[in-house]
Design a protein that fits this description.
Among the domains are: about 120 residues; about 170 residues, Rossmann fold (3-Layer(aba) Sandwich); about 110 residues, Serine Threonine Protein Phosphatase 5, Tetratricopeptide repeat, CATH 1.25.40. The longest helix is centred in the N-terminal third of the chain and has 18 residues. The N terminus and C terminus are likely disordered. The chain is an alpha/beta fold and about 600 residues long. The strands form 2 sheets. Strands 3, 4, 5, 7, 8 and 9 form a 6-stranded mixed sheet that branches. It has a two-stranded antiparallel sheet with strand order 1-2. The chain is globular. The protein has 27 helices and 9 strands.
Length: about 600
């Protein structure tokens, strides 16, 4: 062929790349997506995608707003406020991640791609490039038909969950490179900051085909719950091997963690098993087995209960946290945000100035490298609120101002950032803004699997007088974490102290184990004094003076910043005075706050 002919062919190929798919091609692509396994049980995502695609095809895409979607797709009332209610933003994020999953697996060879770019609700349509189509990934059915022996299947990135079977299991993956390309193409680099977790579908190891649907729906329930946490959740396909066969996992590619699970038994009784593996080392971090009768009318309840327990592995101080903390301590240079988050939760467990300084240095280092990354600023906001409430480093007003600015910056970058909304709740609380109660509800709605959201809401509710709601939220928090901390006991201690149940308050306060926590020691001293256990009260007083030498001069002024319920305030102050502390009346000057 002549040189001119070659150039003509190149130009034609270029023109073809620039050509946009027709409306009929886009609708055909939409139908394939909605019929896929990724979207089969995702009603909200399906409705969302169908609506925005049709609006974009009708020429109204650029005028799509959160209000319109909230009302017309999710049935919100006419007074729906898309600015204060993060529903649409949260669902948009989930839809984007579901599209990533689809194009990394079932939709890998689709000729037309539909994307929802960040910053808009208008969809974009484009032909898949020839290079993309050449690297096709077979569907699970095709893979089974063409290759009777097990193959590797799609592994995508970080923090993985392996659902482990009772019996002989192994797992395989395919197309990691293609999956990584799909993630990069959809421009969500910030998600890779979170631990990666690969979810291998629950497998039916029994001879009873009626358990196939149960295993599939268990996988879906676990995926939906994990997707609400700070994890990069990846769906994978897997086949199980016989005992004589072995499979090695590409740990460098997989990273993070793998979750596998299995179901075995009969149509009336079954054992559901799960296991969490650290991909790099192959170490088994956690296992779970649940024996239950399978009754059709109670399947949704059973699946939700099991998924609830499985997902708790990702809660603070659970097995993933402990593994991330160990990894973070090995990262001496160029820490990632996940390293800082592990350091932050460890600091919250010990409440020491050294832990605070370590976390602050880590977050500041990351913020220099990623100044436009919302989670960095929301993490800093949470830490600055801790400084304000714990008197680490600066006086109260300066730290609270820093927290407010960091929160505003995070929300400006991403209004749907969970941690930014959690920080906003605390900032509103310390500012005396009653909107903090609505913010508690909003953060819980954003992350209904977050023990942190429930714990914070529970504590703030109790100390401001709503013990019934606060304790209910605290119970939810305890159920969501594998390792309940002293913080939960402190909420109970505060509630009992407020209600005059001093012996119960003392029992709960002793369970806190808050040797480095001034506020915990204050509650312990007050409860012990009211219970006439002066030995315990005096020991707590000594620790308070060691931790905070200015406590007696500043405590009452600090307590005012907490906007305590009057009954709790009176019980706390009278108890502290009975314990031997001389509390001075507030002065004009404002200083740090005790937490």
């Amino acid at each position: 062929m002549s040189e001119g002919g070659t150039r003509g062919d190149d130009a034609a190929a270029h023109d073809e790349e620039l050509k946009e798919p027709s409306a009929s091609e886009v609708r055909a692509a939409l139908e394939r997506i909605l019929a896929s396994r990724c979207f089969q049980q995702a009603g909200r995502a399906s409705d969302f995608l169908h609506f925005v695609v049709e609006q974009t095809l009708a020429g109204d895409g650029q005028r799509l707003k959160g209000y319109t979607i909230g009302v017309e797709v999710f049935g919100r009332p006419a007074d729906f406020d898309a600015q204060s209610d993060a529903l649409v933003r949260v669902e948009a994020g989930r839809l984007r991640r579901r599209l990533v999953e689809y194009y990394a697996s079932e939709g890998n060879a689709d000729p037309v791609k539909i994307t929802l770019p960040r910053g808009t609700y208008a969809t974009e349509f484009q032909y898949a490039s020839s290079a993309e189509q050449a690297v096709s990934v077979p569907t699970p059915t095709a893979a089974i038909e063409q290759h009777p022996q097990p193959r590797r299947h799609a592994v995508l990135i970080l923090c993985a969950l392996l659902v482990g079977a009772v019996g002989v299991i192994a797992w395989q993956y395919a197309s990691l490179r293609k999956a990584e390309h799909a993630v990069a193409a959809l421009a969500q680099p910030q998600r890779t900051e979170w631990p990666r977790i690969v979810v291998v579908p629950f497998e039916n190891l029994s001879a009873d085909p009626s358990l196939d649907a149960f295993a599939a729906s268990m996988t879906e329930e676990v995926m939906l719950r994990l997707d609400r946490l700070d994890l990069f959740v990846v769906a994978s396909r897997a086949s199980w091997y016989g005992p004589s066969e072995t499979v090695s996992l590409d740990t460098a590619a997989a990273g993070g963690y793998v979750l596998t699970g299995s179901v075995r038994g009969t149509g009336t009784n079954a054992r559901i098993a799960a296991r969490l593996i650290e991909a790099e080392t192959g170490a088994q971090l956690w296992t779970f087995a649940y024996d239950a009768p399978i009754a059709l009318d109670r399947l949704p309840e059973l699946q939700q209960r099991i998924a609830h327990d499985v997902v708790a592995i990702a809660a603070p101080y659970g097995p993933i946290f402990e593994a991330e903390l160990a990894r973070a301590r090995r990262s001496e240079h160029a820490p990632k945000l996940s390293d800082c988050n592990a350091a932050y939760h460890e600091y919250r467990r010990r409440v020491t100035p050294a832990g605070y300084s370590e976390t602050l240095a880590c977050l500041r280092a990351v913020s220099v490298r990623q100044p436009d990354f919302a989670p960095v600023w929301s993490s800093l906001a949470m830490l600055y609120v801790d400084e304000y409430s714990s008197s680490f480093g600066r006086t109260g007003d300066e730290a609270l101002d820093s927290a407010r600015r960091a929160t505003e910056r995070a929300l400006a970058l991403d209004a749907g950032d969970f941690l930014a909304n959690l920080a906003l709740t605390r900032v509103q609380f310390f500012n005396g803004n009653p909107a903090f109660r609505e913010s508690i509800d909003r953060t819980i709605a954003m992350r209904p699997n977050s023990a942190q959201a429930f714990a914070q809401g529970g504590f703030l509710s109790v100390v401001t007088g709503d013990s019934a709601r606060g304790l209910a939220l605290t119970e939810e928090s305890r159920a969501l974490t594998k390792t309940p901390l002293g913080f939960y006991h402190l909420t109970y201690a505060a509630s009992h102290l407020r209600d005059g149940r001093f012996d119960d308050a003392l029992t709960s306060a002793l369970a806190v184990d808050g040797q480095n926590w001034v506020f915990a020691q204050a509650v312990l001293a007050a409860a012990a004094a009211h219970s006439e256990r002066l030995d315990i009260a005096r020991s707590a007083v000594r620790r308070i003076r060691e931790l905070y030498p200015e406590f007696e001069a500043e405590a009452l002024e600090n307590f005012e910043r907490w906007h305590f319920d009057p009954a709790f305030y009176d019980a706390l102050v009278t108890g502290l005075r009975a314990a031997g502390l001389t509390l001075e009346e507030p002065s004009v000057a404002t200083r740090g706050v005790v937490y």
